[in-house]
């Protein structure tokens, strides 16, 4: 099937990864098809749509239904080679005529499987369907184009639905953001670029913005599940209130400053945060892997001889390196230096604008070091479990 994305890809890790298209594009295409079917009384097999990125698409129309007063069409989401949870989902648009008037207007809402906003701070107001600004513009543009072609003047009622949406949303950020009942209809370019780091960073920034708008001034942050579990077990905090920053330590710090947060507590596994002790703010292994070199350099400064340093450099994991330090009674002295370096680089990144508390732990050896007023800061994050 020709879509218009043939030959469009990015190369990552020496592999060609195909582009896809967003839920917003699918919603706009389905709405256009349903509007056309409502006026023509004929089922369109394909529909053409121009994405904001400037790439035209030729998309197959699925699962149509035509009644006297409404038309229903679906377009299947294709995320290309991006690991998108909505890949393969059917995005439906139900279109019916509203009141006639001098000008056509589109009244848009979400149906089953489209989330609804329950907390302030997001792009749409509380109570609105989680259909973002650009998809709304795309839907309106495509529907009004058909109205103009058929010389229709009046309201058009459009309802977007995703039958799988409520289940799919459990695998997204939506529940944490207060978007309940389904997925969001998203997309700023209309096109999905595979393995998009920016998409994940944007999700992290969105959660931070929402919490800030809700009055939060302090955040509790970990890269992922290991850090969340450590904090929950050792500090009795609610892991659902912990922001996960993945590998994007630098972007998270930048956003905190930009949004006017007062302080952060960051807890990370030694395997990731040892990199921050070397000034590395994106901890993904494909960007950097100087774990053993940084650990060995700090061990040397803490008094390790060349044999110990060599042994650390030969280690395969940071956990193994920590075991070597413990064996030679160098762990406490080395980690003191490591914590000071992590604090230095994070404080430098934020220009001293944030009160920072940092905890580094090991899955095998537990807490390895902390710096900053941890207990007081955690209280300010308001993340303690109730009861």
Write up this protein.
The protein is an alpha/beta fold and 387 residues long. The chain has helices at residues 23-40, 133-149, 165-169, 174-177, 197-213, 225-235, 249-258, 270-276, 291-301, 306-314, 318-327, 331-349, 374-381, and strands spanning 9-12, 15-18, 20-21, 46-50, 56-60, 62-66, 70-76, 90-100, 105-110, 113-114, 116-117, 154-161, 179-180, 182-183, 191-192, 218-222, 243-244, 263-269, 355-362, 366-371. The strands form seven sheets. It has a five-stranded mixed beta sheet. The chain has a five-stranded mixed beta sheet with strand order 17-16-18-19-20, with helices on both faces. Strand 1 (9-12) and strand 2 form a beta hairpin. Helix 5 packs parallel to helix 7, helix 9 (291-301) packs antiparallel against helix 10 (306-314) and helix 9 (291-301) packs across helix 12. The longest helix is centred in the last third of the chain and has 19 residues, at 331-349.
